[in-house]
Amino acid sequence: MPGLPVTLGFLLNDVARLLRKRFEQNARDFGLTRSQWQVLAYLARNEGIQQSALADILDVEPITLARMVDRLEAASLVERRNHPTDRRVWQLFLKPAANELIVSMQELGDLTRAEALAGVSEADRETLTRTLTQMKANLVAACNAPQLKRTASHG
Predict the structure, then answer these.
(1) Does the pTM exceed 0.85?
(2) pLDDT in tens, 95-117
(3) Ranges of each domain in the chain
(4) Which CATH code is given to the segment(s) 8-144?
């Protein structure tokens, strides 16, 4: 339909998609997929996280994450360790070889963000970050709240 307004959701989705695409272009020479980069990035912030919890955060099926971790483990970047009190649970840790990649990933992230934010003032960047942080908090709270029952009206 022509003339549909650009909505916040579509704009956020497009910006996120293009950020991922540009990061992938910049990271092509490292031989890792975007999904593998994501696993490394989340592990850098959450070492020792349970494999199932990381699957939830990444919004992937546990078996999908297990395959990604298998490949990262084979590349000596990640290791699984048994949980100290529950043998059924795997915790994930970065191996020393991943540290250099994490630094490169941070540099590529900085470059990609700089490209995306070219021409945006520092004040606008701060406002954008504050606004998106508040939106995230609002949505986390809403997702954790009981769903409201709505009645459909067909009038």
Answers:
(1) no
(2) 999 998 999 989 999 999 999 99
(3) 8-144
(4) 1.10.10.10
